[in-house]
Amino acid sequence: MNVHRRARITRTVVLMVVASALLLVWVLPLIWAFVVSLKSEREVLAYPPNVVFEPTGANYVAALFGDFSIVDSLATSTIVATATTVLTILLAVPAAYAFARLRLPAKKPLGFYTLATQMVPPVGLVIPYFLILNQVGWLDTYHGMVIVYLTFSLPFAIWLMVSYMEDVPREMEEAAFLDRASRLQTLWHIVIPQVRGGIGVTVIFVFLNAWNEFLFAVQLGGNTVRPVTVAMYNFVSVEQTLWAKLSAAALLAMLPVVVIGIAGQKQIVKGLTVGAVKGGGRK
Amino acid sequence: MSGQGRVSLRGVRKVFGRFVALDGIDLDIEPVEFFALLGPSGSGKTTTLRMIAGLDTPDKGTLTVDGADVTFAPPGERDVAMVFQNYALYPHMTVRDNIAFPLKMAGTPKSEIDALVREAAARVRIDQLLHRRPGQLSGGQQQRCALARAIVRKPKLFLLDEPLSNLDAQLRLETRVELKKLQRNLNVTAIYVTHDQEEAMTLADRMAVYLEGTIKQIGTPAEVFDRPNCVEVAAFIGSPPMNIVPAMLDGRTVTIEGHRIELGWQPDCLAGPVTVGVRPGGLRIDGDGIPTRLYLSENLGETRLLNLELGQVLIKMRIAQSDFSPDVETVPVSFDPDSIHLFDAGTGRRVEAR
């Protein structure tokens, strides 16, 4: 009895120590950035670093309202990420339903090649995409950027949604068919309400990926479409890097991500484990 | 409610991959009949029901309802309602919305829906639960909800796929009675799939016995029980089913393990190997009978079921508790000649009286 109890306590302690250590690896850069964002540019470069300093909010003011304000870029990021998310869900839900339920010719190869863009390193796609968008004159446009993002978000979203759709018992749909519901009515009234959780997870993942994207944004965007991930580079120039303002901008850009992450924590964890246990990912 | 609901299947065949689920199914179900499809799992009874519902289509053969060919009609156009084994309630809707769903899909005016839902719910006594979700209901209540959803739009055909199998024994008996009453009151054709012969016997006006993708016998429960038309049905119906014993026939005399039994009737074949079928109640302990070895005795409360080794086969005999003495090893058994069914040893078909 005592031995078991001691073993349990030991296990808990070890787990906590390891978890804290791992957590620190991820959190340290954030803490560092936060500390830096409260310093003046001069203080940032002090060596050895000042542990005690007078915190200032000036960097945040500069990042938001200064010469290199990121407000417009935040708006751009919001538009691009929202549009990508909405379109992804509109297209991925019916597609996933088709993959999960309909008898289609060549369903397996179709499902496999849906993932084509996920099989190639993104760098390998930048130049082809650039050339294509250039040809059709869609470089540095919102629709061009969103379409490029869709090529990544759709395969991911479709496959995530398929696993949720497959969890809906077939009899439920059959009952709806017998109740004279058409296939689309069944999808709308019966299936979608039951995969709400899955749609939530997909929304979160797709939005975050689009928000955080940098590689394609920097190559295919420009002065019109400049997401915040790219705009932050205004604080980096050949002569100097404005570390404090960069940190403040980065933290501001991260804010929506953190808020969504905390709000959707439960859903995200479920999304990661969907399919692990039968019915484990539902709702 | 339409008084109609005549279903006919002709030469229906269905194959899943290499598995022949149904072969040569001919079936006629009369209007307002309570018809049971009885058989062990995998015998094709559910596949038949799903075809009548339109959830599966036959590879061969035709299906008509009231004379109209609906072999390939989609489920929604058939005016059938179905209660699924696991009920298939919509978990995100309240009981009220579950019952209302078929009406909404059929375009019933909103003003009428509420009254119809109340009426259907009252019939199965769940009108107090309309605001709940299926997850907040007990198994029996879920089942009633599924029934209400099925009856609310007054279908032509009422299909039930093992609807009682998820209920506990007590509730199953109660619901069985109510189900029969409900069908009578609604005056609707009901087709009922079950592997439980007691359910089929008590509920059905007529039944079809399925074995390995074919129908072996169609008839009233009494016909099927009293006059099984083949040895497979004989060995399936009854709890426990008939004892099947190899024997020789000569005129009116059946010989089992060297013992002669005189039949009270003249079989329409004269001599040769036959299979004798006799129910556990058709056997008696009799000093002059065939000696058997007691293998196991099962106490059933009111009666006792003896498992006896008769030559190479194991037979079951039902006796009164008072007739049992625990220390015997051999039991002499006699066959009641009037309880003997004869089957052709080759084809398995029933041997009738001449």
Q: What can you tell me about this protein's structure?
A:
The complex is a heterodimer of chains A (283) and B (354). Chain A is globular, with a radius of gyration of 24 Å. Chain A has 15 helices and no strands. Chain A is an all-alpha fold. The longest helix of chain A has 36 residues, at 2-37. Chain B is an alpha+beta fold. Chain B contains eight helices and 20 strands. Chain B has helices at 45-53, 95-105, 110-123, 139-151, 169-186, 197-203, 221-226, 231-234; strands spanning 7-16, 19-29, 34-38, 60-65, 68-69, 80-83, 157-161, 189-194, 206-211, 214-219, 243-250, 253-256, 259-262, 271-278, 283-299, 303-310, 313-320, 330-335, 341-344, 350-351. In chain B, strands 6-7-8-3-9-10 form a six-stranded mixed sheet, sandwiched between helices. A six-stranded antiparallel sheet of chain B has the order 13-12-11-14-19-20, with no helix packed on it. The longest helix of chain B is centred in the middle third of the chain and has 18 residues, at 169-186. The model of chain B has no long low-confidence stretch (mean pLDDT 91). The chains are: A mainly alpha (283), B alpha+beta (354). Chains A and B meet through helix 9 and helix 10 of A and strand 6 and helix 2 of B.
Compact summary:
The complex is a heterodimer of chains A (283) and B (354). Chain A is mainly α and 283 residues long.
Structural class determined from secondary elements of chain B: alpha+beta
Overall average residue pLDDT of chain A: 89
Q: How far from one another are the termini of chain A?
A: 39 Å
The percentage of residues in β strands of chain B lies in: 35-45%
Q: How do the helices and strands follow one another from N- to C-terminus of chain A?
A: HHHHHHHHHHHHHHH
